[in-house]
Amino acid sequence: AGSRPIHVRAVSESPIASIDIVRNxxxxxxxxxxxxxxxxEIEDDDAVSPAWYYARVARADGEMAWSSPxxxxx
Length: 74
Description:
single chain
């Protein structure tokens, strides 16, 4: 019950342009960056149950990466 903390850490040899948090298949939150080492913490205060999340990382050179999904039952 309550908010869910979300912590994303991404490191790249090319600058990271943005990170998107996807919740239940839809873009939920995003942040723009311009650095190679990102440590981002946010809270999902409007959490739904059950839910699944993943992070999508976009680099300045156009390359992308995705995290494995995380499922939350409560």
